[in-house]
Design brief:
Strand order of the largest sheet: 1-4-2-3
Order of helices and strands: HEHHEHEHHE
Number of strands: 4
Number of helices: 6
Length: 114
């Protein structure tokens, strides 16, 4: 959970992040995720060891594709396995990946899927 809060702080520099596990307090969490996805400008797909086996991630990716929401893939596999990816490195990589998108979309709503 601590790492998610740190990631949220990094991403907050670029827009309004929504991380389901941190922000979803709805009585109908699945509907809430779909509702939030319909409002975003960019889906940040954080690739972790469970990313490719999650049915919810698959649904979110399909819905984002259907809605023509750009998807930015961020590889966090080393980080999530106790690797050496530091927050400083993550900030640098995320900044490089999102900078061209951010130039044309100030204050974007961002959703992260893991």
């Amino acid at each position: 959970m601590r790492h998610l809060r740190q990631i949220e702080e990094i991403i907050r520099d670029f827009g309004n992040p929504y991380i389901d596990i941190l922000h979803n307090t709805s009585v109908s969490p699945q509907k809430h995720v779909v509702s939030m996805l319909r409002q975003v400008h960019l889906l940040c797909a954080c690739v972790t060891p469970h990313f490719f086996t999650s049915e919810w991630v698959r649904l979110e990716l399909h819905l984002a594709t259907y809605l023509k929401i750009p998807i930015l893939f961020i590889d966090l596999t080393a980080f999530s396995q106790g690797g050496v990816l530091t927050m400083k490195t993550l900030r640098k990589e995320f900044t490089a990946m999102i900078s061209s998108y951010q130039e044309s979309n100030e204050n974007a709503n961002l959703i992260l899927t893991f």
